[in-house]
Amino acid sequence: MFTTSYACLFAISIHMVLILYAVCTFLFLRDIKFFICVCYEINMRSKYFLYV
Predict the structure, then answer these.
(1) Which parts pass through the membrane (predicted)?
(2) Which tens digit of pLDDT belongs to each residue from 27-50?
(3) How far apart are CA 25 and CA 31, in angstroms?
(4) How many whole angstroms separate alpha carbon 49 and alpha carbon 46?
């Protein structure tokens, strides 16, 4: 009884860590894409202003 509850807690904690890791990775990658888009946009606009 005692060992099974510990195993369940262990499995739940591992799942929680994996879910958190996946969510953090997803948010990080999404922010990186957004950051790259913003940098690209700023770069294009600055070139446009330089040409004007």
Answers:
(1) 6-29
(2) 888 888 888 888 888 888 877 766
(3) 10
(4) 5
Rounded Cα distance, 52 and 47, in Å: 9
How does 6-32 read in b/e, with b if 16+ C-beta sit within 10 Å?
Answer: eeeeeeeeeeeeeeeeeeeeeeeeeee
> CA 5, CA 22: separation in Å to the nearest integer?
26
The 8-class DSSP code of residue 1 comes to: -
Stated pTM of the model: 0.49
Instruction: Tokens for 21, please give them.
Output: 């890791």
Q: Which helix (H) or strand (E) holds 39?
A: helix 2-51
Residue 31 is encoded by which pair of tokens?
Answer: 């922010």
